């Protein structure tokens, strides 16, 4: 027992900030691994597998309501072996049990809570549970294990069979030559779902989905389809002007809860900002819109100030909450703005839609824009240059005040795949804007990966914190690192980056590639110890590792004149062609390969 805490569990030995948050819960948490699984089998107990991440608001809510409660913990500890998982460290575990939740309930999200047999096969899974429902459910299954254990075994077998069947790809033997007509058809199928007024898809919440808009940028380049360009620019404009963007410091929140990009879910993730830097830099190349350049520079400023480690690598995320309140760090009351800005408060409040009653909740306002500089400058009898100078000066004052507030929590673990995405973002920004410090940041991080997470034979680790890397890398770590090194080669023409990319590719082919389907498994064949060995196929907020590997093979095949690489890339694309035709939005990274 730790003298400073009433309770201490096995998570106290972990490095993940998310797991450490739960180290002093009364729940006897274990990290994912043999210790917990063997204990469950030895004691004939069911498993609770609870998955989340440090920046997750509802994960914090459920911890406070249930996992910090001694009465709830008693039910959990008596009847279950309880496992906590950081989904960012172990997305392979998350992938299996998220599939279970989607099969059972039709929906997913975090926190993800699965109930499983001692061997890991789930029979129930869901997301957030209020305390009373959580206790009732656990008591129900504890009773069921005593009275009807065969029913649980039968349910677990059915769910596990469903997990094996999802995202299963088979080898397609047909030849295919992709044409612009294929791309036209995909866009026409997707177009009715695009919000051509506010950007993104016609839905709420709205996620940035950078690969979808990168696909449209490439499609427009090939087709000159003006509607595709409009869909892209409307999306980028509204995100950069909306509340999802931090107008004082730069950087994007994870998603917007509404259809207008006004109200964010306030956590800031490295992977979003890395990809959005790449996207906005690429869009600037095509449009020369100064808003896009400003967005890149400010976002990279945020990355440098808040998410860059002393070694030149990048931290994972900033929390949505501070002082237990979502968004508290970022929002303003009209009174606060008036007291800080004085005579310029009216201008600033008009510019960013700050009102006396608040544009959000509890009298608070989120900064977002919906009027042009020309319109506001005219209404205040200013030139556009005068307006920008006043707004910039006001932002500096407010940022100074905000910096004195209690900051959201930092998840300071370093993930290989997300760092690779950031290398690509910095290298792309350098190629577009010729800013030497952007290239320096990319090379520094690449050097960090080579020194700390990539072995001489090409084997990688996934995580790094406090001088230690403890988790075997997954396919996305290889895929995005290879892509980052290819981008660095294109920025510097130093062949060592291509050589390193090829070394990692050879390793991935040896340990992840499936000769039967000609696709890649998500887990290394020597470390595939879960109830299902999954393949990651569809593109989401981060592109799938298979689509990224296919692009890598295609590019490296041309760089090295390697026909086998090119052939593999083409076969992978053919395997998912039907899915891409049906829903290019979730196969957009694949779509860029067929183009």
Task: Summarize the structure in words.
It contains 23 helices and 16 strands. It is α+β, with helices and mostly antiparallel strands. Strands 1-3-2-4-5 form a five-stranded mixed β-sheet. The chain has a three-stranded antiparallel β-sheet with strand order 8-9-12. Strands 6-7 form a two-stranded antiparallel sheet. A hairpin with a 5-residue loop joins strand 4 (112-116) and strand 5 (122-126). Helix 4 (70-79) packs parallel to helix 6 and helix 5 (91-105) packs across helix 7. The longest helix is centred in the C-terminal third of the chain and has 20 residues, at 563-582. The termini are far apart.
List keywords for this structure.
3-stranded antiparallel beta sheet, single chain, 595 residues, 16 strands, 5-stranded mixed beta sheet
Physical arrangement of strands within the biggest beta sheet: 1-3-2-4-5
The overall strand count is 16
Q: Tell me the number of helical segments per DSSP (H or I, 4 or more residues long).
A: 23
Percent range for β-strand residues: 5-15%
Molecular shape: globular
Average pLDDT, rounded to a whole number, is: 96
Unreliable stretches:
none
Terminus-to-terminus distance: 60 Å
The structure class reads alpha+beta
Helix content: 40-55%
Please describe the biggest sheet, giving its number of strands, its sense, and whether it closes into a barrel: 5 strands, mixed
Please compute the radius of gyration using only Cα atoms.
Answer: 25 Å
Give a quick summary of the entry.
By secondary structure, this protein is of the alpha+beta class.
